[in-house]
């Protein structure tokens, strides 16, 4: 029997999903996905299924990895509504110290560096939200390790060379979202964690259990936040309801809709394999279809997820262990999507 999810504002009721399918999902998860630790299903605003595996429970706080990008998107929308910045605000306007040209006097290199710096200065909030900044970045490469130990990670990102003209090429990058977080912090003149708790999390009834920081002590933008599975489901429900909860508008309704509109194609074979049925990328949200239904997805490394299916008034959220039980990015997500697609197909 499900417990009432009072902390998340979700309440258990008789299943709105075929119980045979849910039993099959449970047994399949146990047999084939040892890293999967939590799944919460919410239908019509009520929690209809909650399962934990591998020693986790409703109090377990998970590192939600890049699901944090969905929350950062919401924070950006709030700040835009407050008039703190716009989609077309250049990052160089908010963080000018990171965009001063350091071109050497040597003519052999000066022209190229000046040209790169002048284009860097045109990168906007919109480019970071859509992962089209143009910065050279390999999310799984050495740059990520350098980024994590840097004493000024935002500067490290800002001063990267460009591989493409801003706005033309999608390339997934936590560097982009960390730079966005630095720009947002400057725009709101408030430490980012405090702003997140005051403007989004506390009003939505979500407890932030932790947020890892970079070498300068700043929260890592778009990653490393810690929430419970119920907290993840709560965030999904907030978005499903157009940014409102309990009659209170927390995130602008039009921002949620805009975040779920296709802004970029995803051509990367790795991410297309990781997210079967992918149709594109919005403002830090992945877009896919499940059994012909639109599924807006906030996804984090290793199998962290918030999945919202507006047509069915359905939210599925969950988390996975980030240890030796985890088979890796692609197999874990392929297994998870195999389960959630069964759930979507069995909605009563």
What's the total count of β strands? 13
Average predicted local confidence, pLDDT: 93
Largest sheet: 8 strands, mixed
- Specify the structural class: alpha+beta
Low-confidence stretches: 1-9
What is the global morphology?
globular
Number of helices: 13
Strand content: 15-25%
Strand order of the largest sheet: 1-3-2-13-12-11-10-9
Whole-angstrom Rg = 20 Å
| Overall helicity | 25-40%
Distance between the termini: 19 Å
What is the ordering of alpha helices and beta strands?
EHEEEHHHHHHHHEEHEEHHEEEEEH
List keywords for this structure.
single chain; 348 residues; alpha+beta; three-stranded antiparallel sheet; 13 helices; 13 strands; globular; disordered N terminus
What can you see in these coordinates?
By secondary structure, the protein is α+β, with helices and mostly antiparallel strands. Helices cover 39% and strands 17% of the residues. It is built from 13 helices and 13 strands. The strands form three sheets. Strands 1-3-2-13-12-11-10-9 form an eight-stranded mixed β-sheet. Strand 2 and strand 3 form a beta hairpin. Helix 2 (68-81) packs parallel to helix 8 (174-188). It starts with 10 loop residues before the first strand and ends with a helix. The relative contact order is 0.18. Mean pLDDT is 93; it is low at 1-9.
